[in-house]
Amino acid sequence: MAVSIFSREVFDLCLGKPALRSLSVSATVGDALSVLKRLGESYLSLWSCDHDKSSRISDDCRCVGKVCMVDIICFLCKEENLRSPAAALQSPLSVLITKTPTGIVRHLEPHASLVEAIDLILEGAQNLVIPIPSQSRRKKLLQKPSSKSTLHNNREYCWLTQEDIIRYLLNSIGLFCPTPINPINTLNVIDPKNILAVQYDDPALAALPLISQSLVNHTSVAIVDLDGKLIGEISPFTLNSCDESVSAAIATLSAGDLMAYIDCGGPPEDLVQLVKDRLEAQNLEAALELMEEESTITSLSLCSSSSDEESGSGRSKSGGSYSARLVRRSEAIVCYPWNSLVAVMIQALAHRVSYVWVVEEDGSLSGIVTFAAMLKVFRERLNSL
């Protein structure tokens, strides 16, 4: 029975998923920023073609990457970009594409098996792009024509993520017993080496390359004290709920202060003022203007949202910081070495993360468990059947 689950077509896991919003790689960073804010999307897919400039169907039109607010924030954190954010936003989107030997994004046909999808992920793919069969496109009460931004080669596509596969396997977890009920420290699933971590008092800029790496790996950056105990984390998931002005905070604050700055509810006023003071001291007037501009936009957005609620429209705004996207606190999600695999799976899915930190009884950080490592366990279980 477990074998038949792995033979299921991947499209079964994609039912109901929205079609990908996209941009051409020839667009600019500023274009991506504008679309992310306007649509309230967490990610945009990047394609090798440009549907807005040509109606011709190209067989070479492929998804070559993805971009999110974290990519833009990390890009703007570079010193030359902080000195001229406006010029940086005119850069081509290709500067944000992470290049790996296997490719972060891979295409897969809808009739491919689940085991094929897992193998691609274990080879290094972080997201799989699946075509949506025309006869299976979502039927809505009010049918709307497909947008150019979701059509490629006259087809729509969706993401298939590690979370989708883990959630699917969890629904049939009993078929894999006794493996899922075993402690994680007996399954070779804990990674004690590839831990991305900085100390609380380290400059947040020291965490910048780790943030970029954690975004690619679907993990996070741990914040630890001098004794190696886990205090919290700088999560790409949380950063993705912020706006581009957070780049100024990364450039001026410590890792611990940044953790508080991006926590849900918005940054404390004293930290906002601290960032502004340090920007002035470093002669980063352009970055300071960016902060003040975003502050004004946020205030107007909140006022507009309040008016909409009073008038009964209930529309949510996506233009300002922390306003529309799902936000998660900077508190790290942890487990212990003796917890079962299924318990850790449920914990990660409940918090919408693809990893869980492993700590000892004294709170010291000893490793991390990722969805990719879990999938490897299930793949090995299939080989033993």
TrEMBL record:
Residues 299-321 are annotated as: Disordered. The keyword Repeat applies. This is CBS domain-containing protein CBSX5-like. Keywords: CBS domain, Repeat.
